[in-house]
Amino acid sequence: MKAIIGLGNPGREYEKTRHNIGFMVLDEIVSQWGDGKYTSKFQGAFAEARLGSDKVLLLKPQTYMNLSGQAVGALVNFYKIDLQDLLVIYDDLDLDLGRLRLRSRGSSGGHNGIKSIISQLGSDSFPRLKMGIGRPPAGRSAASYVLESFATADADSLEKMIDEACKATALWVAEGTTAAMNQFNGKS
Fold first, then answer.
1. CATH number, position 177
2. How many CA atoms lie within 13 A of 84 on its CB side?
3. Which residues does this entry assign to the site Stabilizes the basic form of H active site to accept a proton (predicted)?
């Protein structure tokens, strides 16, 4: 059994923001692989889907970004999920818009959602899919930038990146982290 977590913030005011790219990808996955519906479970929006013969658990924590670990920890503990079978999808300021990077483990890189998950799980040994959102322009803080909506001019790049992330996630489910890294890292 695999679990895929998309990070973001709940609420309409955050729906289309850069920080919610994980939610956007998960919504597309739930639409493609499942029935498109979530239930409220594990302090989040929860769904189950099948990809081939694999059962996949999907979760969008509703705890706000900085407390994402609470929801992820609840899911992992309930299903006894091996951390190598957990994929977390989230925004990354250090990657240009449209770029993806899969990692099998690593530090939080300053991302508070990942920091919360590492703290809750007691480990940084879980795969993650970083979604490039680019750095804020000079003079703008990272905190305000991630809570802004994507620019209209970025719509095509955003759509392509979400599509590529869905493909990378499907490959991760089917063949594992290394196969997905080899095919998708560095692609834009």
1. 3.40.50.1470
2. 4
3. 91
C-alpha distances out from residue 70 to 42, 46, 74, 156, Å: 8, 14, 6, 34
CA distance 180 to 170: 9
Dihedrals φ, ψ of 115, to 5°? -55, -45
Catalytic residue list contains 111: no
Q: Which residues contact 17 (CB under 8 A, 6 or more apart)?
A: 8, 9, 146, 147, 148, 149, 150
Flag whether pLDDT at 23 surpasses 70. Answer: yes
Q: Is 112 annotated as a binding residue?
A: yes
Mean pLDDT in residue range 77-90: 97
- Structural domains in the chain (count): 1
Contact 108/60 with Cβ under 8 angstroms? no
Dig out the tokens for 21 from the structure.
């790219």
- Report the distance separating Cα 27 and Cα 160, nearest Å: 15
Residue 188, pLDDT > 70, answer no
Which of the four pLDDT bands, split at 50, 70 and 90, describes residue 187?
Answer: low
Catalytic residue among 2, 19, 128, 130: 19
- Going by C-alpha positions, the residue among 55, 125, 145 that lies closest to residue 84 is 125
64 is in an annotated binding site: yes
Q: Which domain holds residue 96?
A: 2-184
Name, in order, each residue with C-beta under 8 angstroms of 81's C-beta and a sequence gap of 6 or more: 1, 3, 57, 75
